Amino acid sequence: MTKLILILAAQILLLAALASAGDDGDFARTINQKHLGLHKEEKLTHLRVYWHDSVKGRNPSAVMIKQPVSNSPSFGSITMMDDPLTTDVPRNSTVVGQAQGFYAGAVQGEIGFLMAMNFVFKTGKYNGSTISILGRNTIYSKVREMPVVGGSGIFRFARGYVEARTKFFDFKSGVAIVEYNCYILHY
After folding, report:
1. Where does the secretion signal sit in this chain (predicted)?
2. Whole-prediction pTM value?
């Protein structure tokens, strides 16, 4: 009987050891933060860009791929975008990147969108870097705040927020220009 108990105990210990080794031993490990450059002091970067959205014309930068429900001007709509980001309000200003993602009508009773977009920078020291923005945008509010939830390149491990202010909006032509002030903490 004692021999049987010892054999069962040994099998339980063996199974427990195998199970715990398989939990995360094959794909996850703790690493030193210095290997990812996280030992450096965090920086706060401010970027101001102008987002140019055009849903009409010969070369729209955004396309509605899902129409809103019949009783709402925007609720239920989904629009994909690849909008230029410039250094100033005029469309022919220097392009520094693209806003790529979508906005979806997510508010009933007013015009408000869920914004999910990457600001992809294409010039200077930020070339190839991105920030990811995800948040609520009620377009008739004077200032809208949305979180920066991540980034890549220089902005790896980024966090922060953006403030959006409409500079120009013409429903008839389908053009909107929005100033984005981006406040980004990164290493």
Report:
1. 1-21
2. 0.82
